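ugh ok so i messed up the first submission bc i forgot one of the chains. this is the corrected input, ALL of the components this time, i swear. 1124 residues overall. if the numbers dont match what u have on ur side tell me asap before i send this to the collaborators (the ones from the other lab, u know who)
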Amino acid sequence: MRKSILIFSVIFLSVSMAAKSRIVTVDIDSRILGCVKTTSVYLPDGYDENTGDKYPVLYLLHGLGGTHETWKEYGMQTVCDLHLAAGLAKPMIIVMPDASGVNPNHRGRNSGYANRPGWNYEDFFFQELVPAVEQEFRIQGDREHRAVAGLSMGGHGSALFAMYHPEYFSSAYLMSARLSGVPGVSDDRTEDYVEMLREYEFTRVFPQMSDKELAEIAKVRWFLDCGDDDYLLDGTLTLFSQMRSKGIPAELRVRNGAHNRHYWIESLPVALTFVSAGFTE
Amino acid sequence: MRKSILIFSVIFLSVSMAAKSRIVTVDIDSRILGCVKTTSVYLPDGYDENTGDKYPVLYLLHGLGGTHETWKEYGMQTVCDLHLAAGLAKPMIIVMPDASGVNPNHRGRNSGYANRPGWNYEDFFFQELVPAVEQEFRIQGDREHRAVAGLSMGGHGSALFAMYHPEYFSSAYLMSARLSGVPGVSDDRTEDYVEMLREYEFTRVFPQMSDKELAEIAKVRWFLDCGDDDYLLDGTLTLFSQMRSKGIPAELRVRNGAHNRHYWIESLPVALTFVSAGFTE
Amino acid sequence: MRKSILIFSVIFLSVSMAAKSRIVTVDIDSRILGCVKTTSVYLPDGYDENTGDKYPVLYLLHGLGGTHETWKEYGMQTVCDLHLAAGLAKPMIIVMPDASGVNPNHRGRNSGYANRPGWNYEDFFFQELVPAVEQEFRIQGDREHRAVAGLSMGGHGSALFAMYHPEYFSSAYLMSARLSGVPGVSDDRTEDYVEMLREYEFTRVFPQMSDKELAEIAKVRWFLDCGDDDYLLDGTLTLFSQMRSKGIPAELRVRNGAHNRHYWIESLPVALTFVSAGFTE
Amino acid sequence: MRKSILIFSVIFLSVSMAAKSRIVTVDIDSRILGCVKTTSVYLPDGYDENTGDKYPVLYLLHGLGGTHETWKEYGMQTVCDLHLAAGLAKPMIIVMPDASGVNPNHRGRNSGYANRPGWNYEDFFFQELVPAVEQEFRIQGDREHRAVAGLSMGGHGSALFAMYHPEYFSSAYLMSARLSGVPGVSDDRTEDYVEMLREYEFTRVFPQMSDKELAEIAKVRWFLDCGDDDYLLDGTLTLFSQMRSKGIPAELRVRNGAHNRHYWIESLPVALTFVSAGFTE
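and heres the new structure output, hopefully the right one now
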């Protein structure tokens, strides 16, 4: 009995170690931002072997105080490996940009994903990062195979990108997003960041959108996900109701949880499956 | 306050009622079986509007004592509507064949999905049902967009179809499948059915397969799913170990549950997501 | 190999068939309602053997158009058996009252769980049903071991019972509850029922409660659960926000789903676990 | 609108910050081990206020290479806070012992939870740690309110403690436990550790247990939980079958996952609920 068990063990091990995904980094010398920004890129198992294949792409955004390495630190690689290996999502490339300020130790310019005076991050993203990354890696590069997701400030960024650039994304997945309320300036939150949130408070901005804008936004597949103990829950619930009342289909999930990495690492597989089903053929 | 709430309610209602999937039936006059067999077919929301679109297909098999209506009685339509509307699976056509005997009240020929003397169901399925259905409906009709799933005797049938006809299916999802053990004849189980199980006891048959057969079987994406209180669990665990030991990737899930519709209706969304991710582009 | 498998199968079967729960009915000749009301009662595995034990109790309410048999028809027995056997909830007695009108074919008096002119169901429940049932069966019968749950109209009833009689219940679990909006009269909804909803629209009534009432309500453990495609979702979200803003702890969950039995049968195990953790020692 | 939203945000924040659990450490000067061992102890929200209350206790064991701080590093505090606050488990004290060698940098004596020559950890646990901890904190301290759980080597330890000392525990929850197979000596695994596994290989040891031992073991509530990509899965499946075949009730779950912290942090809430339902009244 023990002998056969040992053999199984060895074989299981080889199976579970077969996933050869890797996370690489790319440096982009940004003319728009005036500095070099590093981006982390998850390449799925098989990327190096199937050199004739192109892949869909998910842009995965970090929250306030994070960097391009935050999702990696949360353990996204293991979670993605298993979920892809399980066949519950399509093989995809996952790009994790960096929205922190120039100096990693100086958050002075950490102002979210929108354009701000002197720090046009939104322009950087669409004019420099997306073209650079999609050329560097074998990415299909059309709307039908591009999605965006993010947590907290990155959930806000996902809303921003997919509402103002809906022609870029087939799906948007917002985790614990900051969608309503403008907090005060604090150690963590610069005046610039607070001002950005005031300008793009989506529960206020969304209801003002024109029918033409809404028609485009409706083409994106939306998913809102927030824990019931999250202090930002109200924004998610309000925007969801607003979207539905405007006839824009959206998914909503509220699990047990608060504003932390434990919630987000459990949301990630759901996001992978959701964006996968939107990668049309 | 109440006014706005009423408006929301009305709108929500219209959203949730928007799914216009339907289940139709098709009668196939089978030369092979010598009788007419009715098949239920789930057509997803949008099928009637998007007349230029073709769809992937899932063959969904019932268990011992069931008919083409069993999955419908379990509530598959609601579950599929919601899961597809949630974007957690791709729009697909779901075909539910009937493996009961000629006379609905006479189970004498309810012998599973394999060929039996005088009742070549397997031939009927591949030579008559699949061609008829895939011509009648807008089905893509290639291996990359065809999957099979089933419960109990239908899980056995899914294993049978995907192991002996792997060129037909990209994915196979086995729920509470009868994969080991040969029960005695009883009120429910005819001698013919028991004999069929003896011939195709997969925990015995699978280890004898040739390397060439295994190479083909490995191209199918496999998912085994069984409750921890299911009296058939042992077959699932054994076949899973055998498949892994032969280097054939497979997923395994064991949730809380026994051999009943409550377990299967919870497995169905997982199956939809799993086969969707295998519908390649 | 096959021999040992057969043995396992037999043993598994005996394990899964070991649960000897049963559902019995009790007829209560109600002076208050002026008719006989039948109640279904789930007695857990072990009830007949452990004759020295008393059990906690969950009152489980049906929705509009239902009867004391509705939860049984949904399959509550299997789901409860498995969840209790799994040790994920405490053994408990589950009482399923009947809030349908006198004549089962005449819904004229199906007016929810509140007192109405000529149909004082709330009085019946607290003055007749609870005492009768808790005497008939070995129920602990104190607040610490009593909970209420229900779906749709029964979710409304659960809110009603636990807000106006908080001294009776340690926990309340509301599934897809009607908590806001007053629908028009229809085939299903009598004038009396609509009038009752108008009187007890909780998103309007709750904010008017006194601090003293709120202090009692806060002693109940609250759980609100509703599908994201449910046309009644807005009431759940609004009441949850109102409760939190009044400092009353509550849980919220939103899964994928609409207003149907598939959602509720998946909520039931969560409810069992939640009320179990509130059955203090 | 924005005003009310801001108010909600503030209130939500106060709710989610209300949990005042804390993790403290206790040093035990062990005569048996000949050194000081530090233990981490999770005290739930309310412990400091409800000074008249005693609590049930869960012993939560780390894996090979871990210490008393490993579960803390995995984020157990947040996960437990939320799950307890959600009312899905009872308030409990969670004790995290340290089974690493004397010198934190020297793993030479990291030999699991059993007695080894010169390192009688099992004796230390039952004769010194349990009495010391249960005296230091307000722990109920009887079998009905004591449980054990652990991951990998700690899953092995949980099996060891609950099989050889069943009078101590009402529940045992094994995560990704090493239950079969004896690996070779390596950088991580000392000769002593390998020898211990050889002596206590449960798929070999368990079938040899006497009826008297089995009768005691059957009084413990068992739960086995392992990922389908875990290289140790086979041991879990085999022991589960062995236990069932001996008539010992046990739960089994197999989710998607491998041998890592992502799997265990998702198992933890299930474990809390399971052991809670076993804390009898």
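quick check: The interface with chain C takes residues 228, 233-234, 237, 240-241, 251-256 of chain A (CB under 8 Å). that seems consistent at least. Chain A is about 40% helix and 20% strand.
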